[in-house]
């Protein structure tokens, strides 16, 4: 339920007033449109027999940058470039993926990627090794994919972290980085130009796991056999950078205005009451947004892909048993949707410490531009 809002007595900026008004109204989607029948066709475009890829971005020339966090329990570079002929290389180079390299000059565990239109790639590094130890400070790394070089890094200030923190997702917009803490629920905002870092919405319900993660009707457990708890770790930003979407693995999806997150005069009260329940999503492996504002979700509970249009139509476009824990997808400007299958419920983190992945793991592609529009 949404709380009744008591607006502060001071005069509010117009953007703040609009955001609070939208938060005061339940903003759930209309009845889902009928699922596509038949499902959108899946085209296999890449496979792995050694690494679990949990996210990717696709460069204009078709090459892919692939993300394999240390938590997957597999060896190899945490960030790799896949050429057109299928060969992979550490990215941006071997040194940035070498454990012998000083922590400030290497990627320990890439957790989240964002490619923007000017060729900038943002990479969030948690600093956790394969034994789940923090061996380096968490940091945000900016790369130029046109030259394949690191142009700057920002270390996450320990003051905005908590014991048990683990950064898990990032999106950049309005000159700020928005970073989720999946270990201790919170949202970290970094002013990329001026430097200040703030921790917001500590333990807010929208950032906190409220129910178990399920896959195929089974509750996902952690390495110790207990119910897995992962706080907010899925994140996306609207094409105009006005809205930040986020949720824990288990759902549901929330939205908040980035104008509120970047305004240092906004109070914690105003922020807490401005997060809007956007849709009661199932457990998600990831999401991405197209240029027209359509969100694409990977439903790990059923092996499905959904779209949620800017017109608030929610529709399943794929249901396929090959999509075992589909992870964070990527969509190109032409509408090609790439979905990595990760089988994370069969990796040590979520499988009593045992590796049971059934190789190979496949990346699939869907041509969303060829799909019929959903009908209300």
Q: Which consecutive residue ranges, at least 5 long each, have pLDDT under 50?
A: 1-27
The share of residues in extended strands comes to 25-35%
Helix amount: under 10%
Q: Write down how many β-strands occur, each being a DSSP E stretch of 2 or more residues.
A: 26
The number of helical elements comes to 3
Distance between the termini: 26 Å
Radius of gyration: 20 Å
**Could you spell the SSE succession in H and E letters?**
HEEEEEEEEEEEEEEEEEEHHEEEEEEEE
Overall pLDDT level:
91
Largest sheet, in brief, is: 4 strands, antiparallel
**For the largest beta sheet, what order do the strands appear in spatially?**
1-26-25-24
Task: Quickly list its features.
mainly beta; 376 residues; four-stranded antiparallel sheet; globular; disordered N terminus
